[in-house]
Design brief:
mainly beta, 7-stranded antiparallel β-sheet, 22 strands, globular
Length: about 290
């Protein structure tokens, strides 16, 4: 799993008065394997940023839209942080990723009533090829997903938090669930199913069921059919304001394994949490 993260979670951007976002960019790489994970999210300044319509470079890592317009090509070269029980010293993680879409979507969705926050599931379903010495055998191939988030205000201004989940339903479709709680207490609930031709259909998500809390106590839940219960298969990330896991649930009678994320924006805005973030997100300003 890999993601480009801008200034949305950056404590340095917050402390700088939320000015010059191009001076607070990071290439987040999260790799999971038996025997130890790799996590890198080094924030860099504008000297390490290069942007063109087809390419994004941050430090030694870059993301390219393929020349034929048929996917993404990613090269990453980052330093994974030390982590208790896995490694005592930083270690370099590098490799190449190719994402080829099976389903494309061209509709951008507004997550709040005033359109301050937008979400674009670009490739609701795709195939991925990973080459990296981090993995046994030098890489792997499998299922992928690519989306894009943007906003003109801090998340904690408009949201208390949300749950998001995405999974493949059968051999032809992809399903995505959103359950956001706005700052005024209203909910924004989405159920989207994408067919192979890119057509998106709304469906009413089944009732939300709570998931087990992690070590940091972040709550979360996921839609699941009546008469069934979701099962947390594997916890991938557990932080004071965010969690990521693999969850098995049931949607319209079909068992679905989904990547699930829970975000607590009140925790994110807590000054003590912001002071903890540099331990997972160091800053390096030299080019």
């Amino acid at each position: 799993m890999i993601a480009f993260i801008g200034s949305v979670f950056s404590p340095y951007y917050h402390w700088a008065g939320r000015k010059a976002p191009q001076d607070h960019v990071a290439f987040n790489v999260a790799l999971y394997r038996p025997g130890g994970n790799g996590w890198a999210m080094t924030e860099r300044g504008r000297k390490s940023l290069l942007r063109t319509p087809q390419r994004l470079c941050i430090g030694n890592s870059r993301l390219d839209y393929a020349k034929d317009g048929d996917g993404l090509e990613i090269q990453f070269d980052e330093m994974a942080l030390p982590w208790p029980g896995q490694r005592l010293l930083p270690t370099r993680i590098s490799g190449a990723i190719r994402i080829e879409p099976e389903i494309r979507n061209h509709v951008v969705i507004e997550l709040d009533p005033h359109g301050h926050h937008r979400w674009w599931p670009v490739f609701p379903r795709a195939r991925i090829s990973v080459e990296s010495d981090f993995f046994p055998g030098g890489g792997w191939q499998g299922e992928a997903y690519h989306d894009f988030n943007a906003g003109d205000r801090p998340l904690e201004t408009d949201f208390d938090g949300w749950d998001w989940a995405r999974g493949q339903v059968g051999s032809e479709a992809a399903a995505i669930l959103y359950d956001a709680v706005l700052k005024d207490g209203r909910r924004r609930t989405l159920g989207l199913s994408f067919s192979t031709d890119g057509t998106a259909a709304d469906f009413t998500p089944p009732p939300r069921h709570p998931l087990p809390r992690g070590l940091w106590g972040v709550g979360g839940g996921i839609g699941c059919d009546a008469g069934a219960l979701p099962q947390l298969l594997c916890r991938l990330e557990d932080t004071p304001f965010y969690s990521r896991a693999l969850v098995r649930t049931s949607l319209e009678g079909v068992p679905v394994t989904m990547v699930h994320e829970a975000l607590n924006c009140r925790r994110l805005a807590n000054p003590m949490v912001r002071l903890m973030l540099p331990f997972r997100m160091p800053r390096r300003t030299s080019a």
